[in-house]
Design a protein that fits this description.
Blueprint lengths: L2 E4 L1 H17 L3 H18 L12 E4 L5 E8 L2 E9 L16
Parallel strand pairs: 1-4
Antiparallel strand pairs: 2-3, 3-4
Helix pairs in contact: 1-2
Length: about 100
């Protein structure tokens, strides 16, 4: 299996989203976390499955929730740059790619 690193900012985004959904309905935040973890597992198994974008990132749409996992696959390693809501601030994670290079 390929190594995966989740940037601290991405981890924070995940837990903020989990808390938001948990406040909406008990258990919904947990469901989001499960879907995110499943998506990360699939990314780790098939890192080149998603389209390589001009900026060097790939984006996996999370099942059941309006979230993208934005990642870079480089040197047999996956870097999770963002766990981003689909309808909010596009490409805000772009500066995070500098930390990987």
């Amino acid at each position: 299996m390929i190594d995966v690193t989740i940037l601290d900012e991405s981890e924070e985004e995940l837990w903020e989203a989990v808390a938001y959904y948990e406040n909406k309905a008990q258990g919904l935040g947990l469901n989001l976390n499960v879907e995110i973890q499943r998506s990360i597992q699939v990314i780790a198994e098939y890192p080149e499955r998603w389209y390589l974008r001009v900026d060097g990132t790939r984006r996996c749409l999370v099942h059941r929730f309006p979230y993208l996992i934005v990642y870079i696959y480089q040197n047999n390693h996956i870097w999770i740059l963002a766990i981003a809501h689909c309808k909010r601030r596009s490409a805000y994670w772009s500066k995070r790619t500098r930390r990987i290079e």
